Task: inverse folding
């Protein structure tokens, strides 16, 4: 079980402690990227779509990463596995994704607050000036500048989209 309130608080605390401007947007509960983007009123490419992925084999042995891609794109699991030093990758089991993401599916943020979850972002994500994502809640989203996201999250930036 996850405590989405705790992850929400960690997210806002991160923004406050690092003096990062952000906007909160309340909307009807929604965890699907396409629908949430419509509710928030932005292009799908500006959504930071987040997926917890299990990478196996090779130098990685067994590792979990948070893959962050533009909302209008799909992650290439084989490419992600290679970038992480593994032989293959698959979407993490539901319970594992929620435990490592610190919140329920559909609300996982593009930030990792778990020591066993690294962040990998596709460079196309940074083509957008501003990024939007659920704020560890189905009924609230956040918008921040992509350059602020990159500075705060410090993701490994690798081409991982189709």
Result:
């Amino acid at each position: 079980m996850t405590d989405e309130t705790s992850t929400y608080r960690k997210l806002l605390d991160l923004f406050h402690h690092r003096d990062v401007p952000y906007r909160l947007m309340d909307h009807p509960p929604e965890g699907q990227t396409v629908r949430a983007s419509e509710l928030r009123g932005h292009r799908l490419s500006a959504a930071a779509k987040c997926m917890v992925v299990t990478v196996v084999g090779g130098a990685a042995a067994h590792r979990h990463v948070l893959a962050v891609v533009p909302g209008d794109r799909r992650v290439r699991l084989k490419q992600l596995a290679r970038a992480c030093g593994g032989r293959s990758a698959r979407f993490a089991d539901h319970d594992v994704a929620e435990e490592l993401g610190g919140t329920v599916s559909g609300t996982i943020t593009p930030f990792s607050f778990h020591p066993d979850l690294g962040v990998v972002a596709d460079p196309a994500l940074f083509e957008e000036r501003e990024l939007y994502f659920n704020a560890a809640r189905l009924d609230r989203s956040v918008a921040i500048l992509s350059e602020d996201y990159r500075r705060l999250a410090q993701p490994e930036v690798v081409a991982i989209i189709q």
In short: The longest helix spans residues 4-17. The mean pLDDT is 94. Residues 4-157 form a domain with the YbaK protein fold (CATH 3.90.960.10).
